[in-house]
Design a protein that fits this description.
Helix content: 10-25%
Shape: elongated
Keywords: Membrane, Transmembrane, Transmembrane helix
InterPro entries: Cell_Proc_Reg/RNA_Proc (IPR050923), FHA_dom (IPR000253), SMAD_FHA_dom_sf (IPR008984), YscD_cytoplasmic_dom (IPR032030)
Number of domains: 2
CATH class of the largest domain: Mainly Beta
Strand content: 25-35%
Number of helices: 1
Distance between the termini: 73 Å
């Protein structure tokens, strides 16, 4: 093999190695710090009445509605109940407008699971509906068995799975 060909193979190998290293660093960075997400997700053509002036947010992603497996559509969820996983039986009151879920100790629902990201997902109250939003987690968030890509409405009794933990919203 000529010296030029050997030199080009070496340069190509080093380039591929650096690309691999940078991709690993970006995945680790995303898992540690999370990804900035859209703060508001609203349905199209739905007017929102606000009591205080708000700076307009970036365009939001479409909202997905998944039919409830049980429960009334008009009832508002007041608590989150963990049905499977390490925290099975635990109940959290839904008193605020957001609930953060992940491995981070400052999360509202701490999921000690190797399949959950540090900042995995969040529940947001919008127009009397709770929306689940995946925060660019590695293994995903599942609502009624379907992976959540855009913010999705969580109806009462619909199972939400993060890693090995499954929870539902209840009235």
């Amino acid at each position: 093999m000529s010296e030029l060909a050997l030199f080009l193979v070496r340069i190509g190998f080093v380039a591929v190695l650096w690309i691999f290293i940078f991709s690993i660093i970006s995945v680790i960075r995303a898992d540690i710090f999370g990804q900035k997400v859209v703060r508001r997700a609203t349905e199209r053509n739905t007017p929102t009445v606000l009591s205080s002036p708000v700076i307009p947010a970036a365009p939001s992603a479409p909202v997905t509605v998944v039919a409830a497996s049980s429960g009334a559509a008009s009832a508002v969820a007041t608590r989150l109940v963990v049905t499977e996983g390490e925290n099975a039986g635990r109940e959290l009151p839904l008193t605020g407008r957001e609930l953060h879920i992940g491995r981070a100790p400052n999360s509202d629902l701490v999921v000690n699971d190797e399949y959950a990201s540090t900042q995995h997902a969040k529940l947001v109250l919008m127009n009397d509906d709770w929306l689940i939003q995946d925060l660019n987690s590695t293994n995903g968030t599942y609502l009624a068995g379907a992976r959540v890509g855009t913010p999705a409405v969580v109806k009462l009794g619909t199972p939400v799975k993060i890693g090995k933990t499954v929870f539902e919203l209840r009235a």
